[in-house]
Amino acid sequence: xxxLVTNLTFWVLTAISLGVVLGHFxxxxxxxxxxxxxxxxxxxxxxLTVGAxxxxxxxxxxxxxxxxxxxxxxxxxxxxxxVSMGDLKKVGKVGAKALLYFEVVTTVALLIGVVVANVIRPxxxxxxxALAGGDIxxxxxxxxxxxxxxxxxDNVTLQVLLAAIITGMVLTRYEGRDRIVAVMNRVSKVIFAxxxxxxxxxxxxAFGGMAYTIGKYGLGTLLPLAKLMITVYTTMALFxxxxxxxxxxxxxxxxxGFLRYIREELLIVLGTSSSEAGLPSLMEKLERMGCxxxxxxLVVPAGYSFNLDGTTIYLSMATIFLAxxxxxxxxxxxxxxxxxxxMVTSKGAAGVTGSGFVVLASTLTAINVIPVEGLALLLxxxxxxxxxRSITNFIGNGVATVWLANHEKxxxxxxxxxxxxxxxxxxxxxL
Length: 431
Known about the structure:
By secondary structure, this protein is mainly α. It contains 20 helices and two strands. Helix 4 packs across helix 15 and helix 12 crosses helix 20.
């Protein structure tokens, strides 16, 4: 019992359950206004937001605190990794291989979404009378204003990634780097120690995030589009255990063992609907399971912008779903056009305000055969599906790192077995 009550996984699960109960039975408390308006600010390039309601405040406070650690951890991990690698040609090789991997896997995810949506046809029979209830103007405006320069300027992760690569390259050629590297190593240890303290607050963030979602949208909003939700969740599960599981199999890494290893982070992502909430811990755990620091530092941050497997699946399925709702028959050429457009636009989903909705609006506008007003149908259930997107993105970036570390011979299998063994031992003690 002592081991159980000191287990973070137990408390996050408990917090998620309590959040569902509070949001369902007492939405007035979950949405009780604490502030007149949400608090928004930018610090170290990160946009920090704390909501006005009770549940939003708890969730936003946790996520914003974790975000403060993201930039320094990415910068230090990448810089120290490049310096330890020593060979700049190898750095370029890893980066190029990572981008190629991202493109191949996200394209597979995109095609899976299109095929499953056409087979199950979740949009058939959906009544469009719900269109009057949603305001999509901010998403259509965002779609028309999108540019790759804006994407880069708003995406602090990419900026830090670029700065860290340049710093690492400079330090590699600097003869007096040992003293600087020693200081950076000490700072890195302090930052990770602070992160461990902050992660103890994860149950509070998960409780607030789930209470807000259920309290604002209610479980009743799921019924009209239940078929779409079930289809999306089923497809992402198939992708995780089928495609990502096969990728890990080639590396002789069991998918279930890997998921057990990162279960605490998965629950945090589930509760907060934010994959960023688990990013720093994921990087640390990947290193602990044997992935080289340099590979972790390059692949994970880049993956958060270019390896959005869950978002890609959702965008493709949502596009086909809306076509079915409005009885728009898509020819093979139109389907291929949708795939081609989403291969480009989905890469910007992480750097645009409104995320997937802005990208979806821009895609519908580009193909010009599906009414963009159909987005209003998705507003009520999008929050419930964001958990599936975030978790799939999160797992996808972890798998990408493991695969690249294996192919670069920068993976310690003995270290992985020790890390997985510790998790199994903890589970047995808890039981």
